[in-house]
C-alpha cells in the first residue's frame, strides 16, 4: 500500500460541507466509517474506502457502494472497537503524516464523541499527527516534551486543556495571554480562550498530555 501525506476519515457524527474545506485543497485519501459514507456521498465526495458493520446505514447500503464501485470492508456488529477506530487502523496502513477526522463530534451519542477525542491519544502514540475537525473547531492532542508552531489561519481562540493530571513547563509565545514555564492542572480553566497576537504562535511544554483546541464562535 502506497504511503500518503494525509488521510481524511469521516465518522457518523455532525458534518457539514465546510468541514471538507481542508480536504478540497488536495483531494487526499478519504475513508468513511459506516454512516459517514452516506454523508460523504450526499455532499458529493466519493470515499476511497468504507469501513463498518452497516448497522447505521443498513446492510442494503453495501449494494449501493457496490453499484458505485466504492470498496468497503464489512465488520462484525459485535466487535471490540468502534467503526471509527477501525477506520483509523485502515488509515494507518497508508503510513500518513497526518490524519484528519470529520464527523467525530456532535450527534446523539456523547459516548462516541468522547471516545473519538480519546482516539487522538491512541493515534499520537503511533507518531502520527491527528486532528478532529468540526465546523468551528479543530482539536489535536500533544504529548510532551514537545514544541509546536500554530498559525492563526481561520480560528480566533486557542485553548490548552490538560488530559494528564498536570502539564508542566508550559511556555507560549505569540499569544495575547502568554504562559511562562507554568503548570496547567486538569480540571482548571487556566488555558481556556487565548488569542493569537501574531500570525504564528508557539506552544512548548516539558511533560504531560493536553488537548489544543482552535475555535470560533461561529462558522466562517
Automatic annotation (TrEMBL):
Mention one GO biological process in which this protein takes part, according to its record: thiamine diphosphate biosynthetic process
Q: Which UniProt keywords apply?
A: ATP-binding, Kinase, Nucleotide-binding, Transferase
Q: What class of enzyme is it?
A: transferase
Which intervals hold domain Thiamin pyrophosphokinase thiamin-binding? 144-211
**Which terms in the Gene Ontology molecular function aspect does this entry carry?**
ATP binding; kinase activity; thiamine binding; thiamine diphosphokinase activity
- Cite the EC number: 2.7.6.2
> Is Kinase included in the keywords of this UniProt record?
yes
Q: Please give one Pfam family short name.
A: TPK_B1_binding
Name of this protein: Thiamine diphosphokinase
Amino acid at each position: 500500500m502506497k504511503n500518503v501525506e494525509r488521510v481524511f476519515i469521516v465518522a457518523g457524527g455532525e458534518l457539514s460541507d465546510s468541514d471538507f474545506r481542508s480536504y478540497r485543497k488536495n483531494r487526499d485519501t478519504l475513508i468513511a466509517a459506516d454512516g459517514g459514507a452516506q454523508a460523504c456521498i450526499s455532499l458529493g465526495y466519493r470515499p476511497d474506502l468504507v469501513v463498518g458493520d452497516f448497522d447505521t446505514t443498513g446492510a442494503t447500503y453495501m449494494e449501493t457502494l457496490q453499484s458505485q464501485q466504492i470498496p468497503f470492508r464489512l465488520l462484525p456488529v459485535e466487535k471490540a472497537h468502534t467503526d471509527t477506530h477501525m477506520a483509523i487502523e485502515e488509515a494507518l496502513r497508508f503510513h500518513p503524516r497526518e490524519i484528519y477526522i470529520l464527523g467525530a463530534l456532535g450527534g446523539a451519542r456523547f459516548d462516541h464523541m468522547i471516545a473519538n477525542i480519546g482516539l487522538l491519544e491512541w493515534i499520537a502514540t503511533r507518531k502520527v499527527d491527528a486532528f478532529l475537525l468540526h465546523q468551528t473547531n479543530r482539536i489535536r492532542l500533544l504529548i510532551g516534551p514537545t514544541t509546536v508552531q500554530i498559525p492563526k489561519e481561520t480560528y480566533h481562540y486557542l485553548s490548552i486543556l490538560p488530559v494528564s493530571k498536570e502539564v508542566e513547563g508550559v511556555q507560549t509565545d505569540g499569544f495575547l495571554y502568554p504562559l511562562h514555564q507554568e503548570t496547567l492542572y486538569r480540571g482548571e480553566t487556566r488555558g481556556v480562550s487565548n488569542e493569537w497576537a501574531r500570525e504564528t504562535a508557539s506552544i512548548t511544554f516539558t511533560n504531560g498530555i493536553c488537548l489544543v483546541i482552535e475555535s470560533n464562535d461561529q462558522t466562517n
